[in-house]
Design a protein that fits this description.
With 201 residues, the protein is an alpha+beta fold. It is 59% helix and 15% strand. Strands 2-3-1-4 form a four-stranded antiparallel beta sheet. The chain is elongated. 24% of the residues are buried. The mean pLDDT is 87.
Length: 201
Amino acid sequence: MNIQDLLRVFQRYWALIVLLVAVGLSTSAVMLLVVIQPSYEATARLFVSTQSLGTADELLQGSTYTQARMTSYAQIASDPIVLDPVIEKLQLDRTADELSSQVEASAERDQLIIEIVVTDHDPALAANIVNEVAEVLSAVITDKIEAPVAGSEAMVSVTTLRLADPPSAPSWPVPWIVITVGGLLGLIVGVGLAFLLQSSD
């Protein structure tokens, strides 16, 4: 099949192709308005620092110690030791396992910052959950994971850098992506059907 044959197919079935593209676009628009439930992301940030008034070498050792444990601190954010108190405080109708799928915490390499992101269909609830997770995680790190020995100070402290406000726009769906995918699917189906009709003619 040469280029002239291709052009002949498009010329003959252009109305069908346009119709199916329009169907794809309208279907994606309906999904945005009715089917797809929007999700909102709320973010909180914590800074973990070493508590030491000693020499520069001791400060360096303490910082290295904390950096080596940052990934572990972040993983704790989605464990029951943190989520159970959050569920009780906010009176959520879900288990820790269910809530853990909404919580994502990460720590950048060689940094002392933990970023916590919570996704929920309710923007206000997403903000409340992430702020509560940040508060409970801070307490767990300082009072349990790094609990000070009797008569000494805690080795690390956790400072809240940012608490979340209810997000104003959903993180998903992104309208232009859904519309574009719908239009492309309509185009693909339309072109495929046009060639199928042409070959059977």
